[in-house]
Amino acid sequence: MTGKSKGSASYGASDITVLEGLEPVRVRPGMYIGSTGPAGLHHLIWEVVDNAVDEAMAGYCTRIDVTLLPNGSCRVVDDGRGIPTDEHPQYPGKSAAEIVLTVLHAGGKFGGSGYKVSGGLHGVGVSVVNALSSSLTLEIDRDGNHHQLDFRDGGKPQGGLKVTGPAPGGRTGTTVTFVPDPTIFDEVEFRAQTVTERLQIMAFLNRGLEIRFTDQRAGRATKEVFKYSGGIVDYVRHLNNTKESLFRKVGYYEQSEEGQEVEVAFQWNTGYYESIHSFANGIATIEGGMHEEGFRKAITNVINRYARKRNLLKEKEENLKGEDIREGLTAIVSVRLADPQFEGQTKGKLGNVSIRSLVERATNEKLADWLEENPREGGQIVAKAIQASRSRMAAQHARDLTRRKNALDGAGLPGKLVDCSSRDPRECELFIVEGNSAGGSAKDARDPRTQAILPIRGKILNVEKARSDKILKNTEIQALIAAIGAGVEADFDVSKVRYDKIILLADADVDGSHIRTLLLTFFFRQMTELVNNGHVYVAQPPLFSTLVGKEKVYLRDDLAKARFLEEHPDHRNEFQRLKGLGEMDYDELRETTMDPTKRALLQITVEQAALADEVCSILMGDDVPQRRHFIQTNAKDVRFLDI
Ligand code: 0RA
């Protein structure tokens, strides 16, 4: 679009110029690649690689090489048929290759030999990469010849396609080398990890395809090869690798009809998370969609039918719930279809209704067959689901009990809670203090009207590694729930919280930080709203003390120490690092840590909570959360509409 007009009233036809060729891509890159940030930058690589993967899916390509070169360019080499080099019927005098690189949407649809199923990120085509590159070189090995065509400044061909020699060893294939345009992108440096993560998934999803990655940029020298003869079966094995699997086998089934196909691999582990990853045409569908829906529905049916048939579930017993069946399930659901409809916030949800019934039917038939053939594993799956279901009911029962206790107004308060006298939650604070001795001095240091103390003994339970019923049986956790007085998990009601501030007070040592992490994990997972509403704080007892004359001076952290040293340069060696709260007496504890007019509290904000979610998961859990993190980073890859 050219010409600018101030108001819509003066906006007329003369303001609109028809954009030609690749120009629209340069004017509105976001519409084609989502953004001009890092996600958009990496889309350039995905687009070229996807074209090569299409060749592989069509059965013509076995190997793809992706190289990041020292000059900032990226090279993608495949051993497919090579983009056609002959004259294009609709563009006399121009090669088909030039058209594929300079006309939007010309890619795989050329000549009517379009692929049934196209992975190419919503098929914008390699011409979009050309449009957004300051330079691009296309090389084609085909019919015994090596051809080359250079483009500059957003896709301008420098002459026509030329034969520059023989195809090495008579090979066929396409090589695209491009430099992302620095005037388009916020930054043009590719991130190796982003690239390898994606390439590995592509290799998992395309059984037998070899994808090589080489980073030749200064100081990196990385080389990786991804090739999986087991495809998504290897993917599931990989995902469950760091965990204890329920049985050794990885199940697999596939089905296709009317140009649509589904492939599923699955295995259970002994953990408590469900980890289903779905893909459509090799694109991660983070928000799920019809294929996932069909899978979930059918798996619940199949396992219940199987459990009843084998009398593992008695006639009068209720059906197992889907969530119980999926506990510890790791599965890949990969579908391929001609016209994928990506919907939702991040275009990560598959909308095609027809795929739901295909996945459902495939699962109903083939998973049932698999269970018949694997009765030992079938029994283990049902046993785990029954356990999960009992645990879920026990947890509900435990929640009901705590709720009833709370209803008796104070009757359920834990014995070791030293409560405050005020009954106005807005001015009340609860200090959760590690250790009995520190609890003692906190009790003496507090303002008894508004400050309550709950001493916690030893390590609390790691909620990341336990089922709800076990969590709720833990006495330290029961005390926490009762003292806060607002229930737990699904029953948590933030309006009933008895204290405005819940303050964690622990030593500044390894044990203290471990307990802090455990407590924060508990709040994040079981009282999420408490954190989201800003009720959770961490107290900051001083890290250092020193004597000035006879007077003891406390310094909160390294910054405070540095400032103090600027004023008292001669104090460099007298410093003492405080380890435990017990090293302070009660009036020191009040002055430095508890007195609302003098202390500094760290509020746990939602942003930090998100970070902690990640950290908690990785530190406290097994490997599933690490994958979740992986998904989260990839989910940001906001996709674009094919217009
Ligand atoms: C159009 C038609 C054909 C292949 C391709 C494009 C093609 C594109 C790319 C992009 C990267 N690698 C690629 N490999 C192939 C079909 C060619 C035929 O019928 O021989």
Descriptive report:
The chain folds into four domains: 13-226, Heat Shock Protein 90 (2-Layer Sandwich), CATH 3.30.565.10; 232-391, 2-Layer Sandwich (Ribosomal Protein S5, domain 2); 412-541 and 586-640, Rossmann fold (3-Layer(aba) Sandwich), CATH 3.40.50.670; 544-577. Helix content is 37%, strand content 21%. The protein has 20 helices and 27 strands. β3 (87-88) and β4 form a beta hairpin. It is flat and about 90 Å long. The structure holds 3-[3-(1H-pyrrolo[2,3-b]pyridin-5-yl)phenyl]propanoic acid. 3-[3-(1H-pyrrolo[2,3-b]pyridin-5-yl)phenyl]propanoic acid is lined by residues 51-52, 55, 78, 80-81, 83-84, 100, 107-108, 110, 113, 126, 174. 3-[3-(1H-pyrrolo[2,3-b]pyridin-5-yl)phenyl]propanoic acid binds next to α3.
What fraction of residues sit in β-strands? Answer: 15-25%
Give the class from helix and strand content and strand pairing: alpha+beta
Name of the CATH superfamily of the largest domain: Histidine kinase-like ATPase, C-terminal domain
Given the structure, what is the number of helices? 20
Number of strands: 27
Give the overall pLDDT as a whole number.
85
What is the rounded Rg?
A: 31 Å
Total domain modules: 4
Instruction: Give the class-level CATH name of the largest domain.
Output: Alpha Beta
Outline the low-pLDDT stretches.
1-19, 109-122, 407-411, 609-619, 621-625, 627-643
Apparent shape: flat
Summarize the structure.
This protein is α+β, with helices and mostly antiparallel strands.
